[in-house]
Amino acid sequence: GHTCIIPGYGPLAESKLWPELGEAYTHVIKHLPGSSGTTRDGKAVYREGIVWDLRPFIGTIGVAPDFEVESSLVGQGVWGGNWDCRDIKEGTKLYLPCFHKGALLYMGDAHATQGDGEWTGMANETKAEVVLNCRVIKNKKIPYPRLEKEESIIQLYTDKPLEAAVNKAVVNLMKWLVEDYGMAPRDAYFQIGVNPDFRINVYQMVDVGRLHYTVGAEFPKKYLNKKR
Asked: Where are the transmembrane segments (predicted)?
């Protein structure tokens, strides 16, 4: 894997304090296989003495937009796109609205690891072989892509400024709780404010070009009724 500095790119590209952060540079991160014999569960060696678990995920995934002509590199929207969301990983269910026959699913931008927000604009970039199981859910509409993990549900949203993304993610999470799990609107509202296990995840906060910020409003399943 690797991470790098691209001149003119990144939050400190014009830093006078640390001018070297605006100069081209590539840092190679060694990936070691785990018990599976692959790097899906291995280790990342940043340098000698600095090692952490590999946590691979897909940074970009989506379907063909309804009518827009969008970039598969930086496009983001209700169809999916460049989210750099670390929870789009092995074992997670991703719910995507679809607009065309066959959906025209695409993906790329694999990351081996990433810190919250991907603030520098570059993660631990890598290549990957991905196996997906896809299923069509008929007669179901959702306002924006959603995730379901073993112990929680996550409502995604991309927008700028950051508070706009957070607000829309939370409102759409509340709709999910009310419509699919039978939670009273007042209870959903209060639990967002007082439940210590509710989380707002800032997945991508790369301040470059047209990219918006990606957030996820996460709610534990242990507080939910059985899904309708």
From this structure: none
83-118 pLDDT, tens digit each: 999 999 999 999 999 999 999 999 999 999 999 999
Identify the pLDDT of residue 139.
Answer: 92
Q: Helix, strand, coil proportions of the chain in percent (round to 5)?
A: 20, 30, 50
Please provide the DSSP assignment of 14-79 as one string.
T-SS-GGGGS-EEEE-EEE--TTSSGGG-EEEEETTEEEE---EEEEEE---SS----TTT-EETT
What's the number of CA atoms in the CB half-sphere (13 Å) around residue 225? Answer: 12
3-state secondary structure 69-111: CCCCCCCEECCEEECCCCCCCCCCEEECCCCCCCCCCEEEEEE
Region of residue 209 (phi > 0: left; psi between -120 and 50: alpha; otherwise: beta): left
d(CA 73, CA 118): 16
Q: Which of 117, 215, 217 is nearest to 173 (CA)?
A: 217
Q: How far is Cα 170 from Cα 188, in angstroms, rounded to an integer? A: 10
- The residue ranking higher by pLDDT, 9 or 171, is 171
Evaluate if residue 217 carries a pLDDT over 70: yes
**CB contact at 8 A, 149 and 94:** no
Contact 225, 211 (CB under 8 A): no
Report how many domains make up the chain: 1
